[in-house]
Write a structure and sequence with these properties.
InterPro entries: Peptidase_M1_dom, Peptidase_M4/M1_CTD_sf
Oligomer: single chain
GO molecular function, one term: metallopeptidase activity
Number of strands: 34
Largest sheet: 7 strands, mixed
Strand order of the largest sheet: 5-8-3-2-14-18-16
Keywords: Signal
Protein name: Peptidase M1 membrane alanine aminopeptidase domain-containing protein
Shape: elongated
Length: 743
């Protein structure tokens, strides 16, 4: 009888070298990441010489409700905290993506299909008459003298009379105007929605003033053109903003209202005071009845609302006579911000019931996982077909039917978008990443914490992102339709999957499976605390997560963020062994095992199953295999008889795993024994270090195994589940009965 030879004690180096292609999946990211320096150190923290610029704004503007235009003037005070001398400044003119000479329609692909909606045809032909873009009327210095400027599409360069040296600041003014677009016709992150039944407008006002471009240690000037998808890179500063509107308008805004006596009635001010003490439910500041009254007759006179904000990177507003307004206090550890919502009657009853509650829940969970929310307010504004974020304020969809009815799905989607957009207060409004370059650093991180918020406050809500299972269809798709996460947003092919879903799923796997919640949460919070009100890059995130956890995660960043590989770990072969022991050699140890065929994927057709009896191996005493005195000196403490006794009736299972998808991941094994009990084992991803494609490992078990499942809880985003089980039955998926937490 042929026997397999296994020396249980040996670990000869010859067995450590694996065959197969080596793709350097475990090589360090050192040369890929920017070199650490005194601005950003190797731990992922800001260095001793870290700096960032600052821009303060004083703005006066007026919204014209007759022709849907906005005009204004601003004084910017720009602080050069860099070590460099600047001979010119760059400002962002984002509205220019709607100008006649915009590159956006030129670089947007279009195709003809067998049937086309009018809106699609209009987009192709540019068949609308809209005069968009900023009209810059003047640029002057602090003394009112004209400054030379040059406009290149969505960027404006101001040439300084003399260089701005390190430590200096400069004040200058810009006057402008632009026509606001109908979002229902032209789309966009801001603009207006028209309500034909009552003849009123709801304005969401953003990218509405020339804003300073970023100058930093990573890029110098970040002045990539704004084409519409890549979002924003901005400097922190203080704002004083006065917006003049029709007297019956209500204005929601970034910042704190400074002239409530001028714009609110006595009863509205009393309600606002009451809201600051209401922790369990919102208080209506402007009721639906009051909003209906305002929208029925248009005021001819005007009011100016004044808002101030400190340490924000942007400023946005919303304005309409249609607004209902409610507010509720949120108790954090040391702060009590107001969660607030503004919405037209068309949003009720859904918005009055759910919006402010969702804002409050978001602040609670995000404050726990990042930093305590530092601003005085967090606002959700309702308008159709939008989801967009700004400091302290966001614009969100989720409209009931005309009769006020709504489905569970409508409610779920509305809550989800509110959590997501309010969550953007943390990423990137506070942890101030460069959205123009790295969409995943705000969208992916935010989507991940969004999923934690939903699990905590809405456990039965259907989630769209964050769980590994939700990214499977994308991960197993055609690689031609993918780009790595580390891709400029203008080049990404599937923005939602690439920048939202995949990084959110990756971080969920990192938290739940690889690091564990306690270790992950500490490292993630460390990143947030280190980079709050600063400008992190990808390397700062990667390095901080490793620095605060003592885990080498370069393999994880490389696989998930720098490639389009997917997870497909296959349990491709299982062999069962027992020790060949004579009956009289070990007393009372049972009968000798017999040899049977090896059970493996290669030797079966429709069913891969365990053999009836195990393959046997012979035990070899130490003295029979050591060759030199030096080896005997090392091995002379081995008690061969004790080892035989301990393992005489044990089962040895040799498992072979294949990495078919490319992404190396931990191997999670669930064993089911003959007596019905189960056991789970976890092999770290580093098991693939010697061979990234094939791994074989032996497990010793006291009980007989009847079933083996890899990734039993579906936590690694493995796209092919049929090869994760043993015995294996064709055409069986463990995901057939998966339910994604519907309402």
């Amino acid at each position: 009888m042929k026997k397999s030879m296994l020396w249980l004690l040996m670990m000869s180096p010859i067995f450590a070298f694996a065959q197969g292609e080596w793709n350097q999946k475990f090589e360090q990211l050192g040369t890929t990441l920017p070199t650490a320096n005194s601005y950003r150190n190797a731990s992922g923290a800001p260095g001793k010489d870290y700096w960032q610029q600052r821009a303060d704004y004083v703005i006066q503007a007026e919204l014209n409700d007759e022709n849907q235009s906005l005009s204004g003037s601003e004084t910017i005070t720009y602080f050069n905290n860099s070590p460099d001398q600047l001979s010119y400044l760059w400002l962002q003119l984002d509205q220019n993506m709607r100008s006649k000479n915009s590159d956006t329609p030129l670089v947007t692909e279009s195709k003809v299909s067998s049937s086309m909606a009018g809106k699609s045809i209009q987009k192709i032909t540019q068949g609308y008459d809209f005069d968009g873009g900023f009209k810059i009327s003047e640029v002057t210095d602090a003394s009112g003298r004209p400054l030379k400027y040059f406009i290149n599409k969505t960027m404006m360069r101001i040439d300084l009379p003399k260089p701005l040296t390190s430590g200096e600041n400069i004040s200058f003014s810009v006057a402008w105007s632009y026509n606001m677009q109908d979002r229902m016709q032209l789309g966009g992150r801001s603009g207006y929605e028209y309500f034909p039944k009552d003849g009123n407008y709801l304005y969401t006002i953003a990218q509405w003033f020339p804003r300073m471009a970023v100058y930093d240690d990573l890029n110098g000037w970040q002045h990539k053109q704004f084409l519409g998808r890549g979002e924003f890179a901005l400097e922190f500063g203080d704002y004083q903003v006065r917006l003049t509107v029709p007297a019956d308008f209500v204005v929601a805004s970034t910042g704190e209202l400074k002239n409530a006596d001028e714009v609110l009635s006595k009863v509205q001010k009393e309600r606002l005071v009451q809201a600051k003490k209401s922790y369990d439910k919102p208080v209506l500041i402007v009721t639906e009845a009051e909003a209906r009254k305002a929208e029925s007759s248009k005021a001819k006179n005007k009011k100016t609302w004044e808002y101030h904000a400190k340490d924000v990177r942007d400023f946005a507003l919303a304005a309409s006579r249609k607004f209902i307004w409610d507010a509720q206090a949120v108790k954090l550890d040391t702060k009590t911000p107001l969660a607030m919502s503004y919405y037209p009657k068309e949003g009720n009853p859904l918005w009055e019931k759910e919006s402010t509650k969702a804002v409050a829940n978001t602040l609670l969970t995000y404050s726990k996982h990042t930093i305590e929310y530092p601003y005085p307010v967090a606002i959700s504004v309702h308008s159709a077909s939008i989801g967009m974020e700004y400091p302290m304020i966001c614009f969100n969809y989720g409209r009931p039917n005309e009769d006020g009815s709504f489905t569970a799905m409508k409610r779920s989607n509305m809550i989800g978008v509110i959590i997501h957009e309010v969550g953007h207060n943390f990423f990137p409004m506070i942890i101030n990443s460069d959205e123009r370059q790295w969409a995943w650093m705000d969208e992916g991180l935010n989507s991940f914490v969004e999923s934690l918020t939903e699990k905590e406050h809405y456990p039965n809500k259907r989630r769209k992102r964050g769980d590994p299972l939700l990214i499977l269809d994308y991960m197993k798709g055609d690689k031609e339709g993918m780009r790595p996460i580390m891709t400029d947003p203008e080049q990404i092919l599937q923005l939602g999957n690439n920048s939202y879903g995949k990084p959110a799923a990756a971080l969920s796997i990192l938290r739940e499976t690889i690091m564990g919640p306690e270790m992950f949460d500490y490292a993630f919070k460390t990143y947030a605390e280190r980079w709050a009100f600063k400008r992190p890059g990808p390397a700062d995130f990667f390095r901080t997560m490793e620095d605060a956890s003592a885990m080498d995660l370069d393999w994880f960043w490389k696989g998930w963020f720098y490639t389009t590989d997917h997870v497909d770990l296959s349990l491709s072969k299982v062999k069962w062994y027992k020790m060949d022991v004579s009956e009289n050699e070990i007393e009372n140890k049972g009968k000798k095992s017999k040899k049977t065929k090896i059970s493996s994927g290669e030797n079966s057709q429709n069913l891969i199953d365990f053999a009836e009896e195990a393959e046997v191996f012979s035990y070899i005493n130490v003295e029979d295999v050591v060759e030199t005195p030096r080896q005997k000196e090392f091995m002379n403490q081995v008690n061969d008889q004790a080892i035989k006794n301990a393992n005489a009736n044990r089962n040895f299972y040799e498992l072979t795993f294949e990495n078919k998808g490319g992404l190396v991941m931990p191997i999670i094994i669930e064993w089911t024994y003959e007596d019905g009990t189960k056991e789970r084992e976890y092999l770290p991803a580093e098991i693939w270090k010697k061979n990234e494609n094939l791994v074989t490992k032996v497990f010793a078990k006291d009980k007989k195994v009847i079933n083996i499942v890899v990734d039993p809880n579906k936590e690694t985003a493995d796209v092919a589940t049929e090869n994760n089980v043993f015995p294996r039955i064709e055409n069986t998926s463990r995901f057939d009965n998966f339910q994604d937490g519907g309402e």
